[in-house]
Amino acid sequence: MLGLSGGIDSAVVAVLAVDALGADRVHGVGLPSKWSSDHSLADAQDLATRVGLHYSVVPIAPMVDSFHEATELTGLAAENLQARVRGTLLMGLSNQHGHLLLTTGNKSEVAVGYSTLYGDSAGGFAPIKDVLKTLVWDLARWRNEHARTRGEVEPIPQHCIDKPPSAELAPGQQDSDSLPSYEELDAVVADYVDRDLGMAELLERGHDPEVVARVLRLVDGAEFKRRQSAPGTKISLKAFGRDRRLPITNRWRETLPTVREGAATR
Ligand SMILES: Nc1ncnc2c1ncn2[C@@H]1O[C@H](COP(=O)(O)OP(=O)(O)OC[C@H]2O[C@@H]([n+]3cccc(C(=O)O)c3)[C@H](O)[C@@H]2O)[C@@H](O)[C@H]1O
Ligand SMILES: Nc1ncnc2c1ncn2[C@@H]1O[C@H](COP(=O)(O)OP(=O)(O)OP(=O)(O)O)[C@@H](O)[C@H]1O
Ligand SMILES: [Mg+2]
Hints:
Layout: E1 2-3, H1 8-21, E2 27-30, H2 38-51, E3 54-57, H3 61-70, H4 75-97, H5 107-112, H6 133-149, H7 158-162, H8 175-178, H9 182-194, H10 199-204, H11 209-221, H12 223-226, H13 251-254
Parallel strand pairs: 1-2, 2-3
Helix pairs in contact: 1-6, 3-4, 9-11
The chain binds nicotinic acid adenine dinucleotide, adenosine-5'-triphosphate (ATP) and magnesium ion.
Enzyme class: ligase
Protein name: NH(3)-dependent NAD(+) synthetase
GO molecular function, one term: NAD+ synthase activity
């Protein structure tokens, strides 16, 4: 089972699960909140109909409101409540029915910690945790093309592929508000994580110095999230957890003296 947001990550994970297990063994749940777009529900429903998985909807706004009445969380903590209510509900359903909850984080998000702990990172298996976001889009296009050549219905609605990625935790939010473009981010993650290049080599390869400094800081700082995340599939040279754990190297820090000494070795 998985949360179906109408976004590309949950769409690709849902289709992977249906291909692997059969539609009758896959349960998608739409969990709209106050800030969910209309297309979130429409695209989730469209995908569910195309692939024939079990689909249900549980609006979470009343539950999120109850938390707000009982607490005084603001800013990011308040936004993250939506992801945490979803994680709690999905684990409740998993617990009730004996389903395995699939968590949908991709390698780009896992790299920089772009997920809510005990929220969208909840789950027992992470099928795309080693798949960079740009490759998630490639996979989606490839899967639809595969269906077309066989005269089958394309499983993934084109709108899921075309729309900008968004956590939909705040009005109009887009991933690009908080992160470099996925093209830039994935290029740096591939060189830093998979190829194990240091700061000097990353700059030599022509990456933007500000993006490099930011991404390296985020990647090192997100180790605590990766240490408490679900296992998943390995497809790249270096999968987090299995092939790469901090501490690994201090090389890039030697060229970036402003970063707190020793953070990567703790
Ligand atoms: N080294 C460390 N060891 C243990 N704990 C550490 C820590 N560093 C920070 N912390 C603590 O971790 C907490 C911060 O982590 P957390 O509560 O998870 O939340 P946080 O990382 O602050 O926020 C989650 C981010 O992910 C984004 N997000 C969330 C959900 C879904 C999606 C999406 O793409 O759909 C994106 C969201 O917009 C936001 O930018 C704080 O309490 C902080 O003090
Ligand atoms: N409205 C929602 N209903 C159900 N699940 C949701 C909802 N919003 C988020 N989720 C869950 O949280 C996950 C993380 O959200 P995220 O936005 O990173 O992925 P996505 O929506 O699948 O793709 P994209 O990053 O392209 O928006 C989703 O894949 C889904 O499992
Ligand atoms: Mg989304």
